[in-house]
Amino acid sequence: MMTNDIKWWQKSVVYQVYPKSFNDSNNDGIGDIPGINQKLDYLKKLGVDIIWLNPIYMSPQIDNGYDISNYRKINPILGTDEEFDTLLKSAHKLGIKIILDLVVNHTSSEYPWFKDAIKSKDSKYHDYYIWKNGKKGELPNNWGSSFGGTTWEYVDKLGQYYLHLFAKEQPDLNWENPEVRKDVYDIMKFWLNKGIDGFRMDVISLISKDPKYPDGPLVQNRKLGSYYAGAANGPKVHEYLQEMNREVLSKYNVMTVGETPHTSSKEGVLYADASRNELNMVFHFDHMHLDYGKYGKYSDKRFKLVDLKRVLTEWQNAMYEHNGWNSLYWSNHDQARPVTRFGDDDGEYRTQSAKMLGTILHMQQGTPFVFEGEELGMTNAKYNSIDDYTDLETFNTYHRFIDQYNLSKKFTMRSIYLKSRDNARTPMPWDGSENAGFSESKPWIKMNPNYKEINVKNALDDKDSVFYYYQKLIKLRHDLPIVTTGKYELLDKDNPDTYCYLRKGENETLFVAGNFTVENQTVKLPKFNDDGEKIISNFSAPNKFNGDNLDLPPYGTVVYLFSSKT
Length: 566
Ligand code: NOJ
Description:
It is a single chain. By secondary structure, the chain is α/β, with parallel strands linked by helices. The chain has 3 domains: 11-107 and 178-472, Glycosidases (TIM Barrel), CATH 3.20.20.80; 112-163, Oligo-1,6-glucosidase, domain 2 (Alpha-Beta Complex); 485-562, Sandwich (Immunoglobulin-like). It has 17 helices and 21 strands. It has an 8-stranded parallel sheet with strand order 11-10-9-5-2-1-13-12, with helices on one face. The longest helix is centred in the first third of the chain and has 17 residues, at 178-194. The protein is globular, with a radius of gyration of 23 Å. The two termini are 18 Å apart. The mean pLDDT is 97. The structure holds 1-deoxynojirimycin (NOJ). 1-deoxynojirimycin (NOJ) binds next to loops. The site of 1-deoxynojirimycin has 9 residues, from loops.
């Protein structure tokens, strides 16, 4: 990749803000838009280039905003339309861009289109959704929804079922209908014309369904079939995205990242190959699936490093070969905290492992996403009681495990402790005071119990904190073009303890190493003609290095820049 071909979003780092949990300016216990505005200086200090906001639109909040009832209005619990405009302006003034979540696989059942659609088969909006005729009790197929139960909801008055891949309050839109697509493009233009800088597109790989609606296989011990074969990467998804690009995206200088569940790297490049004019990058789930167990996501299985290296390498290579671009992420609002999942959790090496994970991710080729609190090395919340959790996926899993599968409460709670989406949704701990400086009222979701230790104030007061380490990682991406352009090459792929790779430039090479264990490890380096210069490390690694073997302490990490090829 040549340096002058680089697009702005390729040398950027994105920070994901979960608005309800970031900062509460009006002290109602819920984070809000003015609250984000108050913390822009913090984000500027960290050095990020782009903020991604989870949905901020009107919504009954059945799924925390992923059920939208008005696409053009800010949810009053988060602020006003004017407050969003102010945020956008202030961010732009600081040189920070803002991208929004585009949730158009489904709407809320409270959205006027659906409210009309459900009234009569003659409604103009009826065909905006996916309906199947049927007798009550005879489901159109065996699909199970992501949140449990069937994907079909029967409407007595119409004698029809409508499809919802998620909650029944999230009916799927019928993308086959050109009017739907046109209306979606109008919504996109509304926000782009306001000056936003792009979109993260929710479950965009699911918008085109197999018209046969085939039964899906029974997986993960579920009683209902998986909808993925019939709904993920469906027959027209690329046609739709190319149309969206033509009609909307190509007219703006913006970035797009599509969330693409159940998409292999082979399919992933079809979305992100620049010459196909669809999306800039996708969020794949391959590394998120490595610790799935017998019952799917909620399990107490730990990932294996060799597998992690394999899947990340596969995506690095696929995007490089196919003119695409990777998104790089360890976590988001749906996932566990990376330190708990891939590092030492709240053990002796919490901060060391947080820095190591940051290094391994940020030195890869792609656009890194930092989820709020990751820059503090936050851990999972581990609430004692199921009553402290708020997320519908967590509740549904709890009941499925205990009532349907007869699994023990101990295993169920352990799986929830490791995987609940609420682990990522605890309020941002700004300091050690009551409610952590997040709000003066009781937050909508409980604080992580360890917020007195892990908080922004402590991080900013400690020059060795994870925060300052992330600040440095982000700056390296801005300062060293090779971090954006270098070709990735995995080293020692079968080593179960360490992750080492190169980034190869025209005349220079980065060597990146991380120890994923609590033991000392020695890693091997290829031969270089000169000494490597240390550019970042979480231990007292030699400033200059050239040799065959390098020692890493527990969760140690180091990056050397060689001004030569291997
Ligand atoms: C993916 C989002 O990230 C998740 O939070 C949401 O529940 C589903 N899509 C449904 O919109």
